[in-house]
Amino acid sequence: MVCYPTFGGSGVVATELGKALAKKGHQIHFITYTQPARLDFFAENLFFHQVNISNYPLFEYAPYELALASKMVDVVEHEKLDLLHVHYAIPHASAAFMAKQILKTKGIEIPVITTLHGTDITLVGKDPSYEPVVTFSINQSDGVTSVSADLKRDTYKHFDIKKEIEVIPNFIDLERFKKQKKDHFKKAICPNDEKLLVHTSNFRKVKRIGDIVRIFAQVKEIIPAKLILIGDGPEKVKIEQLCKELNVERCVHFLGKLDAVEEVLSVADVFLMPSEKESFGLAALEAMACEVPLIASNTGGIPELNVQGVTGFLSNVGDIEEMVKNTLFILKDENLPKFKANALKHAQEFDITNILPKYEAYYEKIVMQVKGKFAVSV
Ligand code: GMT
């Protein structure tokens, strides 16, 4: 598994996938620049290889991609790997291409699967400064998966892709993400039985957190409510300022990067995801698994997760008025229990036990294809 080790969605998916595969007896090697956030324990079949980037004074920008490709070559060769699965196209898919070519000169044919996660396609990848390399390295991967049907469509729309893309959605571990009894926590945050709205993300512009604060400010004018924002990122300072401008700062709690997100989700009433773009919305799935309905924008892969009027509501990006109206509708005593139950029911479709076999079958298929080709060529 090659991934970003941070709190971002692609790193979480890669780490959880690796952990689940290891539990089933596969040997999983993580290759990344630091220990992945959710891999801070010892377990059988799980290994971590750190990419070391030498910091020669000549380098204004250290060539991470080269160090990564070299590490991939080393690990594939010495650990006798069967497959490289890289998460997030930039720069992992192109580094994998380079590693594959180097390994070829050593008589090793390593299959490469690239999983597209979202912003590697919809934001960063299609930027002209990366597009040619992204197109090339996707086409050179032996297998390509995307986390939603919408992301697959977007990839074909923005890049000249010849490969068939397999859709394998994000998944959830329902053992971990489930509603827990955390009444004391709810009491501390909402002492007067206020409704609790929650959002979690990396606080990037694409998440439109300003919309969340505006929705909250309007909801709060009608019913008593609190807002919890989990995560951190570039927009945070601006958002803190906006809370002051809208005079809601005393009702908005910033919890920072939190490991046990499920504990907060357990006491939440509505999860807000008004993103500009969202290829899947893993954070929303985590909320749904904890019985939290969604107010989200009708964009990207979100409609594949959030069923209109059933698990929550979808509105056009930026339609704050409608999101406020829908939030108030969900929060009515006569509606909330049904929405909560529906959210959980739908989240169960993305249970890791349903999705893991899809990855295993895809690995099998790609390994067989590459082995077949290699046998013919030698
Ligand atoms: O924007 C993020 O939340 C981080 C980003 C990432 O790659 O780390 O998340 C993307 O991948 C997740 C896992 O596949 C998806 O669930 C998110 O929807 C996607 N984010 C966007 O498309 C903005």
Describe the structure.
The chain has a six-stranded parallel β-sheet with strand order 9-8-7-10-11-12, with helices on both faces. The chain is built from 14 helices and twelve strands. Helix 9 (236-245) links the parallel strand 8 (225-231) and strand 9 (252-256). Helix 2 (64-79) crosses helix 3, helix 3 (89-104) crosses helix 5 and helix 11 (282-289) crosses helix 13. 47% of the residues are buried. It has helices at residues 9-23, 64-79, 89-104, 119-122, 131-140, 149-158, 183-189, 209-222, 236-245, 261-265, 282-289, 320-331, 336-347, 352-377; strands spanning 28-32, 46-50, 84-87, 112-116, 143-146, 165-167, 195-201, 225-231, 252-256, 270-273, 294-297, 312-315. The mean pLDDT is 94. With 378 residues, the chain is α/β, with parallel strands linked by helices. It has two domains: 9-171 and 352-377, Rossmann fold (3-Layer(aba) Sandwich), CATH 3.40.50; 183-350, Rossmann fold (3-Layer(aba) Sandwich). Bound molecules: ligand GMT. Ligand GMT binds at residues 8-11, 13, 88, 117-119, 147, 170, 201-202, 206, 277-282. The site of ligand GMT has 20 residues, from helix 1.
The order of strands across the largest sheet is 9-8-7-10-11-12
**Structure ligands:** ligand GMT
What general outline do the C-alpha atoms trace? elongated
Order of helices and strands: HEEHEHEHHEHEHEHEHEHEHEEHHH
What structural class should be given to the helix and strand makeup?
A: alpha/beta
In whole angstroms, the N-to-C terminal distance is: 28 Å
Q: What's the CATH topology name of the largest domain?
A: Rossmann fold
Kindly report the average pLDDT value.
94
Could you describe the largest sheet, including whether it forms a barrel? 6 strands, parallel
User: What percentage of amino acids are in beta strands?
Assistant: 15-25%
Q: How many β-strand stretches?
A: 12
CATH class of the largest domain: Alpha Beta
CATH superfamily of the largest domain: Glycogen Phosphorylase B
Q: What are the segments in which pLDDT stays under 50 over at least 5 consecutive residues?
A: none
Structurally, the number of domains stands at: 2
The portion of residues assigned to helices is: 40-55%
Alpha carbon gyration radius? 22 Å
